[in-house]
Amino acid sequence: MDLSLNEEQKMIAESAAVFLQEKSSTAQARKVSETEGGLDRALWREVLDMGWCSVALPEAAGGMGLGWRELVLLQEQMGYHLACVPFFDAVVAVTPLWQALSQTEQGLGVVERLAASGRICVLGMTVRGELPTAATVKVEGDALVLNGQWSQVGSGAHADVFLLPATLPCGSLGLLEVHAREEGLSVQALTTVDATRSSADVMAVNVRLTGAAVLMHGEALRSLWAQTRNLAAIGLAAEQVGVAERALNLAVDYTKERQQFGKAVGSFQGVKHRAAQMLVKVETARSAVYAAAFMADTAGDISDLSYFAAQARTDATEAALFSTRESIQLHGGVGFTWEFDPHLFFRRAQASSQRLGTVEQWRELVAVRLLDEATEDQMAEAA
């Protein structure tokens, strides 16, 4: 498995870094989080204009036709620069759905209408990434009536369109397109530890929709949802790598300047060791993320992908948590103050560590799969 970047991928990563360095400083992130609810609309429009939101969309849908390796490179830079845009929720997490819908002519029309519109479309995905069980749809005349609640929907406070899973009258799972201003739909913005990203509780009370609102249904949707959770976890892990690397760089830059006993703090062996530990975790996590993205582009087996997604998610989460904590410590007394930046990345690391399942939950998932496979092998040998 060759995880080295080709020239085109290097160019994507470098251009994203240069652009976000100018447009998404920590000063800008502070301003947006304090006055605009965590959404930098000007930056979002520029991201749309640059075509980043269509990187992994098929060419038939107006996209670039690239893959998850290119997408995670952008997502990594989003984390490094703490960009206040819904790139993860409105691009990364919904890309598997757009890719699946693009395989049919009818679905292609949906993708062109929603994905290429510039509107913020987000999935009604729970914090753990599981399917909600209480949302239902019933038929009243010619209308479908939706009732249910979707808690802590990422970027929900700024969404234009929600893609909400619910149980259809026939008993199968369906995914419905619901516009944020639909009568009967309420969106309650939540106060979160990471003010650079929004979240909301979404509730539907007798929301009347047409049959065209059902974008997908049945067992195919269940399989797609499991695949979406794995792919979204890889994307989130890429962001965490960016957060971890930025925390490391903040610590290194500060310890080079901070003087104690007539020497830069960074010259002390104990400080060097802690920075080296951070670097090891960052690079280990990056390798896991790139490997997972490689598998997403080349392997179609969802079972295999779940192992890679779990590896990327756990390594990146641990790297982000460790590096942001160490960065605060290496800043000394000022590391805990509002004026310095480490806490911004610490907050993002903490919030992201709970999304799509915790490290413990991902490890449990892998353990269950491995034990089940071992049991099946033993039964096959006995037979």
UniProtKB/TrEMBL annotation:
Cofactor requirements of the protein: FAD
UniProt enzyme class: oxidoreductase
Keyword Oxidoreductase: yes
InterPro entries to which the protein is assigned, alphabetical: Acyl-CoA_Oxase/DH_mid-dom_sf, AcylCo_DH-like_C, AcylCo_DH/oxidase_C, AcylCoA_DH/ox_N, AcylCoA_DH/ox_N_sf, AcylCoA_DH/oxidase_NM_dom_sf
Presence of the UniProt keyword Oxidoreductase in the record: yes
Acyl-CoA dehydrogenase/oxidase C-terminal domain boundaries: 230-370
EC number(s) given by UniProt: 1.3.8.1
Residues of the Acyl-CoA dehydrogenase/oxidase N-terminal domain: 6-86
Name by which UniProt lists this protein: Acyl-CoA dehydrogenase, short-chain specific
Alphabetized GO MF terms: flavin adenine dinucleotide binding; short-chain fatty acyl-CoA dehydrogenase activity
Family: Belongs to the acyl-CoA dehydrogenase family.
